[in-house]
Amino acid sequence: MGKCRYCGQSAGLFHNSHAECEQQHLAGVGRIRGLLLDCFDNKKDFYLIRGELENICRGAFVSEESCRQLYRTVFDEAVERYLDDGVIDEGEERTVARFIQFSGMTQTDLNANGSLEKVVQSKVLYELLNGKVPSPRLTIAGDFPFLLSKKEHLIWLFRNVTLHMQKVRRQTVGRTRGVSVRICKGVYYRTGGFRGHPVETTYMERVGTGSVCLTDRHLYFHCPMKALKIPLDKILSLDPCSNGLGIQKDGANDRPLFFENLNSWFCYNAISNLVSSV
Q: How far apart are alpha carbons 272 and 261 in whole angstroms?
């Protein structure tokens, strides 16, 4: 006989839960989610609903681990809502800070899907939009292979970014061996023995994986195989994608670059605002 995963009582043969217990659990999860999102949306104090949340957890069989997972999911959703209309403002930032204190969750837990990092990056963008030079908001652990000038300000450092560079492949198509015809002694002409015509195709070649440093003046890249220093005012276009950022630099021989695993939302907005302020 199986036991109900919610109430712990016998659930019958080949069953692991009671239908009513599962319904009660799902209803409780929905109520918790609604209460938390209401606090995020209306800037309410989370401590005011603490008792109600505890009662719901007990009555809906919501374990401590399930509650943490629910808090993390709601936090991710709330941050995305805040970012839908631009950047996180000061009131929203205070609400986020209050939730972090209320939940007691670690920064690692809250940043499982990058949401906490987005909050910090949004603060950087908020300062850029207001004409301020962002103050450093990250602690650099490990090697820092970039040499910045004295008046250059670090904006963000990204690890494990893969650089791809556009290359051109040339090949000849339509070539044929043809038939050899002797014209005179020692001279042969191969009919149809032309090389055909050249065709060029472009492709993105993987260069290597390393670090990207964004400052108020440059975008740097470093890996064992290559190092780049791109002045922000020399960037012609930015192509944000879900998995990275494409960049076209100003130069006759400069080919498109693609930085895979780079936060395109943050970099696109940061670079755009930094260039416009110059």
A: 19
